[in-house]
Amino acid sequence: MSVEAREARQPWILLSPALTAVALLLFVPLLFIVVYSFWLRTATGADQVGFFLDNWQEALTDAFYRDILLNTLKIAAITTFVCAVMGYPAAYFIARSKGNKAILLLLLMLPFWISYIIRTMSWINILGVSGAFNSALLALGIINEPIQMLYNETTVILGLVHFLLPFMVLNVFVSLDGIDTNLEDAANSLGATRWQAFLQVTLPLSLPGLAAGGLLCFVLGAGTYITPLVLGGPTDAMFANLVFEAIITQLNWPLGSALSLMLLGVLGVLVLIYNRYLGMAQLMKGLG
Amino acid sequence: MSSVTLNNIVKRFGTFTAVHRSSLEIPEGAFVTLLGPSGCGKTTNLRMIAGLLDPTEGEILIGGRRVNDVPIHKRNLGLVFQNYALFPHKTVAENVAFGLKYRNVPSSDIPRRVQEALDLVQLPNVGDRYPKALSGGQQQRIALARAIVIEPDVLLLDEPLSALDANLREDMRVELKRIQERIGVTTVFVTHDQSEALAMSDQIVVMSEGRVEQVGAPEEVYNTPASEFVAHFLGASNILAARCALSGGAVTLHEKTFGTVPIPAAKAPRITSEGPAKLVVRAEKLVLSTSPAPEGVISVPATVQTVDYQGQSVRYFVQAGDTQLQAINMIDGHPFAVGTKVNLHLRPQDCAALPG
């Protein structure tokens, strides 16, 4: 075998374990879901094998699904915006801090050591009727009755921000950390104030990180079902809750499959748009 | 164009003192080099003049005006960095125009001013390109154009040539000096490269460990070093322990290898009393020869120990008695072989004396 052929084969040899895992654990199950979505659940509860478009017709035309999908995208968008506004200054602070960058990054990672579900449920201890916040207000005599703060759209967004903020901070941090601090000094020396230098130089150069963080927050936020389940009220279901409902509660796998593919399609389009303009490389940087 | 004055400046980072109390006067229009090894405080000084660092004590004046409390964006300085620091998301023309936008320059004038600056650095046709499309040397020229287009009071250059390769560095050295002379701007240049300092400067400020060791014209600093550090840092020197005798203004050193060496008063400005002293012998002033010494030249027998051939010159290490000496000689033909018995010729007027 020639040297060239050997060198050409090497990446594939190294990639094959990962590719095998991805193929078996992701693409094959996904294919099952695609097939399932064309089956039909009959009144008896059995799945009828075949090629039926009923699930797709229901998913795509029923206003109920459309409204929840739009609401899901809205919640994801608000969450992403809040994460960007809160995360950017934090990322800037970490990127510009001299000695303790590693410690600050470690602190940022710390929440990941605790299950996402536990972290979400912790808000019940804080905002619940007998939670810390209400207890404090009662003890101070500011209120006489505990206030119901949980189980609405705001607490869903709060929970999502809590969950997704580190992803935003990390992505923006990676972007900011790669910007030479001399650039801001140069802008200052040329007459720009610190704020002008930030707007003219640092912000535009960090936009790829902001976009990567935004995409991650949006996609993860739009696909979640645990946060609305734990922190949302009866009317705060997000799209993934419908999938959960169809598959786990109603055992209607064909409809659940169609719904989950629908969400996958919408988010997939977003990722494609992102990739068209910014490329996946930036996202990979942020994840690494 | 303005003079720059540092008055009793001290800079401490926590418990570490980066710049010990020092004062410095940089005349209007001069090209002054802060020279020293890394960590000597030269960049700290530059950054304090720029306003990127605040001095712990003392004051900084630019054009006679105290600027300690003037933020960097109001100091009107041109700053050039080692890594160019061009804005990667802006074109070359936008980079050069950046400072003009903050200076009430009518927007109709900006393209003309940008073009003049690009002409001055001899890159008139790259305005539409992005920095990454240019070579390192070209990027540094653009950085220079960006710094001088704003007509700064002072031009601050932080090791601007260090990132370039050797040949380009020498070209840029000449180019930089030409531009500086043309626009006549007061320039503070930071480098660790002695040949850059010697070639370009009106004045050299040699620094070591946060202290100013010597300030002077290049020839003065080179020929009459004020300290052992300066003698070693600029060129190669042999520094030998000696005893000094004064008689009616004349300085005479007694050293065990070279014997009695009369030193011209100009080469011993820091000798004030008799006693221990140092004899400074530049490596290139020590000439290896097999012929007898002419009148007035000291001659000492020695043996060649190491030969470091460098083409037009050669560096020898020779043993004279129990002293090892370094000599750098221009050669024509073959260098002396190891083990050759030679005479070391030294003219006393080429030596300098330092207090012991």
Automatic annotation (TrEMBL), chain A:
Q: Organism's domain of life?
A: Bacteria
Q: Which GO terms describe its biological process?
A: transmembrane transport
Write out the entry's keywords from A to Z: Cell membrane, Membrane, Transmembrane, Transmembrane helix, Transport
What region holds the ABC transmembrane type-1 domain? 69-274
Major location category of this protein: membrane
GO cellular component: a single term: plasma membrane
Bilayer-crossing residues are 12-39, 75-95, 102-118, 124-143, 155-174, 251-274
Topology in the lipid bilayer is annotated as: Multi-pass membrane protein
Localization, per the record, is: Cell membrane
The family note in this entry says: Belongs to the binding-protein-dependent transport system permease family. CysTW subfamily.
Q: What is this protein called?
A: Spermidine/putrescine transport system permease protein
Organism, scientific name: Roseovarius litoreus
UniProtKB/TrEMBL annotation, chain B:
Q: Which domain of life is it from?
A: Bacteria
Question: Does the keyword Oxidoreductase belong to this entry?
Answer: no
Among the GO molecular function terms of this UniProt record, one is: ATP binding
Please indicate if the UniProt record lists ATP-binding as a keyword. yes
**Reactions that this protein is recorded to catalyse:** ATP + H2O + polyamine-[polyamine-binding protein]Side 1 = ADP + phosphate + polyamineSide 2 + [polyamine-binding protein]Side 1
Swiss-Prot/TrEMBL keywords: ATP-binding, Cell membrane, Membrane, Nucleotide-binding, Translocase, Transport
Q: Which residues form the ABC transporter domain?
A: 4-234
Looking at the UniProt record for this protein, which Gene Ontology cellular component terms does it annotate, in alphabetical order?
A: ATP-binding cassette (ABC) transporter complex
The EC number(s) this enzyme carries: 7.6.2.11
Q: Which InterPro entries match?
A: AAA+_ATPase (IPR003593), ABC_SmlMolc_Importer (IPR050093), ABC_transporter-like_ATP-bd (IPR003439), ABC_transporter-like_CS (IPR017871), Mo/tungstate-bd_C_term_dom (IPR008995), P-loop_NTPase (IPR027417), PotA-like (IPR005893), Transp-assoc_OB_typ2 (IPR013611)
Q: Coiled-coil intervals in this record? A: none
Q: What is the annotated role of this protein in its UniProt record?
A: Part of the ABC transporter complex PotABCD involved in spermidine/putrescine import. Responsible for energy coupling to the transport system.
Q: What is known about its subunit structure? A: The complex is composed of two ATP-binding proteins (PotA), two transmembrane proteins (PotB and PotC) and a solute-binding protein (PotD).
Q: Which family, according to UniProt?
A: Belongs to the ABC transporter superfamily. Spermidine/putrescine importer (TC 3.A.1.11.1) family.
Q: What is this protein called?
A: Spermidine/putrescine import ATP-binding protein PotA
The organism encoding this protein is Roseovarius litoreus
